[in-house]
Batch of 3 targets.
Target 1
Amino acid sequence: MLERVIKYAFDNIGNTFSGKNVADYFKSQQRKIDLNTVYNYLNALEGAFILYRVPRYDIKGKEILKTQEKFYVGDISIMYATMGNRDRMIGGILENIVFLELKRRGYSVYVGKLENSEIDFVAERQGEKIYVQVAYKLENEQTTEREFGNLLSVNDQYPKYVVTMDDFWRDSIEGVKHLYIRDFLLKENL
């Protein structure tokens, strides 16, 4: 059953979920697992640095929320070895890469919640804060509006970035900067 929980977590990189979501999923597959067992497995995977748990942060209320966290993989090669190469997972993998880089830079990382929208990352370090949205590509107006719009709805003056695989897209929108993933990874200071 541990292997199935691992695969569920890997398959949901970049999505919020809870232990109850995992247990309910297995129940729908006619496989029963105790909720405490799910939490024990997730805690063990986190303790082994296979997964990182990222809590949600209410931007307006300035508090950490207790449900619907995200999990990211400590080493993407473990995910590939377990799941194979799946093109549909590229968005989650890109988000995972950005998460790991923020952690490497010493940030405390949260998933931002602002009313009904989500900010992929709220990262804090020594009194500074940045907001980061991650998207595979800004291939249409709807995606561009969603990624930039979520950040524009945050009403403060901290830096805001949209990180994508678009190496030709250099525009900023109303102070929200676009960064090509390579530039994000190589840039010394954000």
Target 2
Amino acid sequence: MIGIFFGLLFAVFLNQVLSNSELNDWGWKLGYIFLIISSLLIYFILTIKSKDIKVTVIDRNSFLEGYNLTFFSKIFFENIFALVPWMFIFLFCFNLWLPGVVLSKNMFFSEIQFVHIIFIFIGSIFLNFVFELVGREKVLQYFSFFTIVLSIIFFIFIDFSSNYSINLLLFFLAVISSISIPLLYNNFKKVNIRTNISNIYFVTNSIFFIISLLLPLTIYYFMFNAIMYKMIYFLISIVFILSLLSKKINTKQQ
């Protein structure tokens, strides 16, 4: 999350300082230079600190032996809400150039501001400490329940005829994102890492794999079809219903 935040901060800085022509000519190279320098810096820091770091080498065969499809499915669907914050953040990355491509009726994502990302970043840090005190089990159930209720209410009653409704939608997505990220982190912390590290590995990569499929499909849809903003609330409710049901089923099976 910290890496994504500072990467977005650097991208916003480049867009403010350089013009479009400068970015197309040579400005885009600065991103790779920044990535190389930061990677080398981290490498040397880890090299210096390596004496204090205990590394456990896991054999490839034993790593794959820990993979269990049933356990993977349980973790994945219980944490499927992680799709919401990452989709929201990645759509923000496209809001500078997509308005010239997509339909004018689909311009809601261009209203996503960097302040929303800052809100997610700060909120995630603060809420992580709250989750440690309250307990993830209660947070997951209450958070999922209230998100479903609010999403259904907004889906039925909100009229998207003004900018206020768009601002409410973006704020709602930012709040959900700020809660979802630390909740995902706390869920993974409670899993037995030694015996199920492969499951966590596959779940994390599966979430990003699905996003890599959803993003181009979503953008392609925006290019030719007008989106119904109400459907965003509906989809959010479906995601959290799946998460809540998965949690209930997993609890009964234990």
Target 3
Amino acid sequence: MATPKCTPRIDFSTEFGAESLEGKSAIVTGAGGGIGESIARALARAGAYVTIAELNEENGKAVARSLREDGFKAQHHKTDVTKWTDLVSAFTFSPTKTIDIVIPNAGVASNPLIPWLTNTPEDATGNPLPPSQAVVDVNFTAVYNTALLAIYMFKKYPCLPSPTSDSTSTCTPPPSAKQIIFVGSMASYRDMPGIPSYGGAKFGVRGIFKAMRGLAPDVLGEGREGVRVNMIAPSWIRSGMTGGLVPFLERRGVVVGSPGDCAGVVLRIVGDAGVYGRAVAVLGNGGSFDLCDDYDGLEGTREILAASKRGVFGDQTTREERKKGELKLEDLLPNDGEEIGVAI
């Protein structure tokens, strides 16, 4: 098996001036709030025209409207990412009729498996009803579909035809590398006890990322630049989904980040043409780091272990509490089947 193409690790200790995204067109799914909103705002402020592909019309329109009021370029498209036709419509909704940056961010929270196992719903014959597939549909399948659609659109609509030429091969501005930035999670690397739907989906996103960064350089056609594929892997991030868990996490020494931390890393990746095939862990307090998810980095294991020893995940405190019987597994999960907002 060929070694996937990866550039050297990102050095976050050095200053970096991102290139302007003026003239670029981006689409961010699930950008009506949280991480997606912060990413969309950052891209728009950097000059990109951003399509906010968001199912919640009120939230999506509000984000787009506020950006336009501030003088930036943004639009909302109501998008159910689990529907292929909605995704196609969102991509073709681009006012420039071309897409340069795709960020499949949309995701939903997951319930732990234990309540379903202890109180499994049954049909009239006493057989179990199937568990919800929403988390897998949104957090994995929709990401896969969005990524494949991105490649198709990148290939079909490479750039804007020049208004001064009849040739469709002449572009304004000249074509540059298209980009996909996946939104994985620390759950793409670390165990997620009791929540297999979320952990499985996020491991799957990492699998898609690792497979797609190995695409042939000429996947978009001979003579064209390839697709830059990277991934961010947020740890615990303050959001509407995780708000109730933040005090619990911080008492255990977990470094909780913000959606802005994620947006900052995305800008670092997007604005640096020298970054390809990298996965970045996003933590608060400036603690983000390149996971070195490649052969030389032992597929991210070395960096994850080092971060764990630094205590940023709260592992040591949690282990000690569980060893003493002061903390049980169910304490790490929501009560009464309440949805847990996981971004780890």
